[in-house]
Amino acid sequence: MVIQSLLIFFLAAIAPVSAESGIDAWLRYARLPGSVTRGHLNSFPNRIVVLNASKNGPLASASSELHKGIQGILGLDLDVSSSGKSCSAQNTIVVSTLETYQSSCGKLSPKLNLKEDGYWLSAKGKSVQIIGQNERGALYGAFQYLSLLAQGDFSEVAYASNPSAPVRWANQWDNLNAATAAHGSIERGYGGASIFFNNGLIKDDLSRVPLYGRLLASVGINGIIINNVNADANLLNETNLAGVKRIADLFRPWGVKVGISLNFASPQVLGALTTFDPLDSTVIKWWTDKTNRIYQLVPDFAGYLVKANSEGQPGPLTYNRTLAEGANLFAKAIEPHGGIVVFRAFVYDQLNETNWRADRANAAVQFFKDLDGQFDSNVLVQIKFGPIDFQVREPASPLFANLPKTAVSIELQVTQEYLGQQCHLVYLPPLWQTILGFDMRYNHRQSYVRDIVSGEVFNHKLGGYAGVINVGMDDTWIGSHLAMSNMFAFGRLAWNPQADSQDIIEEWTRLTFGLSRDVISAIVDMSMKSWPAYEGYSGNLGIQTLTDILYTHYGANPASQDNNGWGQWTRADSKTIGMDRTVSNGTGNAGQYPKDVADKFEHTQTTPDDLMLWFHHVPYTFKLHSGKTVIQHFYDAHYSGAATVQKFPATWKSLKGQVDAERYVDVLYRLQYQAGHSLVWRDGISEFYRNLSSIPDKLNRVRNHPHRIEAEEMELSGFTTVNVSPTECASKYKAIATNGTGTATTKLNVPSGKYTVAINYYDVMGGSASYDVLLNGKSIGTWKGDSENYLGHDFSTFLDCHSAIRITFEDVKISRGDKLTIKGTGDAQEQAAIDYVAVLPQGVVD
Ligand SMILES: *[C@@H]1O[C@H](CO)[C@@H](O)[C@H](O)[C@H]1NC(C)=O
Ligand SMILES: *[C@@H]1O[C@H](CO)[C@@H](O)[C@H](O)[C@H]1NC(C)=O
Ligand SMILES: *[C@@H]1O[C@H](CO)[C@@H](O)[C@H](O)[C@H]1NC(C)=O
Ligand SMILES: *[C@@H]1O[C@H](CO)[C@@H](O)[C@H](O)[C@H]1NC(C)=O
Ligand SMILES: *[C@@H]1O[C@H](CO)[C@@H](O)[C@H](O)[C@H]1NC(C)=O
Ligand SMILES: *[C@@H]1O[C@H](CO)[C@@H](O)[C@H](O)[C@H]1NC(C)=O
Ligand SMILES: *[C@@H]1O[C@H](CO)[C@@H](O)[C@H](O)[C@H]1NC(C)=O
């Protein structure tokens, strides 16, 4: 009896109910249940032998990580040694580089063909070999082995694994001159303040850096650019370079090399030269000296990332020098040290929409095509996946097929700038794979983007992947537990771009949440549906995301796309919509692709529906391949996309008790928020195009909400009716607001029964308004406009589609004639503001 109760106590202690902050992400090494390990513990190796590890290098990390992981996952405390007659594989996990292994232990069979960073993993009963092409490769092999164990997979394996491309880097957009505001210090960061910088300096406390290095290494990321591409020259001063060295020292054990973004004007801004002309000898000397100094401090420095002549950044064009001359300036300085220069192709000018043929999507090819062959061999041109800017749907950038003589890499964005800013669940690999798996048909031959960026198609040694990953000080790293699957998947796809998106999310879920089938199927199901759903309720048919491009890039504001110089246009008018990118009558963008592809995109008959409005300007009544008109597709996609995410909260609630309380509550809050905000999106976009086109929804959903009570139509005291801008961000275009206290009351004329009461209100920056909803004078729920305490997206100071938010109360018993009152009290800069109340019968979403 005693034993049994002890056992129960023990099980309770390791059950998934203990709080999890997210800090260990997918490297939790949670103890496997006995039912999974049974029979395997006795036949497990009893020691780890690491051969010839360099001090504080990746091999040493591999060994300590294996020890820690096996202790966590299996409860076994293995001996660790770095000596002895270690070649015997009996009872041993051997970890080594290939070179050391072969010189100490003889040839390995089969003969291995390992590329840089690759590994061999063989696990057969009590004998495990983890052999890396280099130390980094051995570390990757160790993480792979631990992933198998953590998933309860004890099957015998023996295989070599090589990365698809040599450059697999994280790009941080951390500002050196961090604002004091938690969210201000990282451009497009939604997970708190920088882990690197504070007030223009490298932080003293860099304790998050090795933890981040460990996460990056575990998915094969081998480099990181630590600062924003809109770079501060002060990073290059002596104080900060000493800090860069400290950061590099902390990443080194994880095989993550450090690089930095450069400000092109540094010689002038920081060095007090009169010029930053890349061909000027004083400038060349300045960069050469600076580079030599950096390598003194950081001998394995990865290289430079450069954003030049883009969005106001200085660059070589100021001196009539070419972008290639600009890139080569750094390439020559860094070449003797073995570093590389990554030069971003994100260069474009402001344009005037009155010119039908102007097109920002053409810019990258226009700026770079003629420079092909002029870049030094240690320059990598980094190309955003699509021609514009990380939109919910874009074709692959044509530049991938226009630089055969130049090494290129692809820039993906893990941070969800235009895709819900980590407050909407959007699992991105299916989107990325539409690009990576796109066949450019260069010279009519198969040429997938993934094979172009690996260097294979055009035969380049360099090539690779950059992921814009804006981790911050938040325990969840990027602001959301579920969004971390994107970071994990970025690494997995950079290693193997043909990996299956669903396999990746399954692996991630097991590692992050354990082996419960319910949990796995729920998270996998939601994740796989999330990008199509987000595309459904945001921008369809290649019209871009339709977020507010002039402000937060968060909520809907389709009008913001047009009538400005940014070139993210839709050209929507009352009859037609879409960018004419044809050669015959439009911007000619289709013609930037190789002929097979160009021919396809030139004509509506051969353009896929999901890119129709990207390439063609058509009437709202244009019939798609699906048989639907453009406008009806908009309505249907918005309703079905929002309907999909309405189910997410209930799916998640079904996991109660199977997920620890801390993560359960946090994720539930976000999924409920997303469900509500998807309706703001649905209604905003549907209303906007309904108004513009004057074409009603065939299914009569748009503008028809029988269960809604407009706040402005309630009996008001202390509230005033206000206009909302854009108008489509309020139901019937108006809301009510108060800085003080107000009440809005209405009599409910519904059959007696149980209802869901949903209230759409606005939560702006600068205060926490409070609310109380009462039925016949009795409170059924209170809340505050304090979502900024839980969500990391960019907030708005206006009543608009960013601040619009919904709260729901379920199972409210209502009798016909009951009196519903909403009381609101403003706080500081935040007005209490309400759009409408929906009294919904069970299962109805209005
Ligand atoms: C041990 O590693 C060093 C490099 O860190 C290498 O020079 C040396 O040859 C290795 N020794 C053996 C026995 O492989
Ligand atoms: C380097 O720049 C930071 C501001 O980013 C400043 O605080 C520091 O004093 C500078 N150090 C030197 C040596 O100029
Ligand atoms: C660059 O060239 C343009 C025209 O060719 C000329 O007007 C301008 O002065 C030049 N600028 C510099 C900095 O040389
Ligand atoms: C765009 O071009 C039109 C027509 O030439 C002109 O009236 C307008 O001022 C231009 N807009 C900008 C922002 O330059
Ligand atoms: C051709 O371009 C003009 C603008 O130059 C545009 O108004 C017209 O709609 C386009 N025609 C077709 C068939 O797309
Ligand atoms: C409908 O669209 C027109 C422009 O086409 C705009 O002026 C008007 O304000 C819109 N109406 C509403 C209610 O949003
Ligand atoms: C609340 O105060 C602000 C700033 O004084 C003002 O702009 C706004 O109109 C007020 N709101 C209401 C509903 O009176």
UniProtKB/TrEMBL annotation:
Q: Which residues form the Alpha glucuronidase N-terminal domain?
A: 25-145
The cross-references to Pfam families, in alphabetical order and at most eight, read: Glyco_hydro_67C, Glyco_hydro_67M, Glyco_hydro_67N
Q: Which UniProt keywords apply?
A: Carbohydrate metabolism, Glycosidase, Hydrolase, Polysaccharide degradation, Secreted, Signal, Xylan degradation
Where is it predominantly found?
secreted
Cited InterPro entries = A-glucoronidase_C_sf, GH, Glyco_hydro_67_aGlcAse, Glyco_hydro_67_aGlcAse_N, Glyco_hydro_67_C, Glyco_hydro_67_cat, Hex-like_dom2
Quick one: a GO biological-process term for this protein? Answer: xylan catabolic process
UniProt enzyme class: hydrolase
**Could you tell me which residue ranges the Glycosyl hydrolase family 67 catalytic domain spans?**
153-477
Entry EC number(s) = 3.2.1.139
| CDD domains named in the record | CBM6-CBM35-CBM36_like
Catalytic reaction(s) noted: an alpha-D-glucuronoside + H2O = D-glucuronate + an alcohol
Q: What does this protein do?
A: Alpha-glucuronidase involved in the hydrolysis of xylan, a major structural heterogeneous polysaccharide found in plant biomass representing the second most abundant polysaccharide in the biosphere, after cellulose. Releases 4-O-methylglucuronic acid from xylan.
Q: What's the protein called, per UniProt?
A: Alpha-glucuronidase
What is the organism field in this record? Answer: Hypocrea virens (strain Gv29-8 / FGSC 10586)
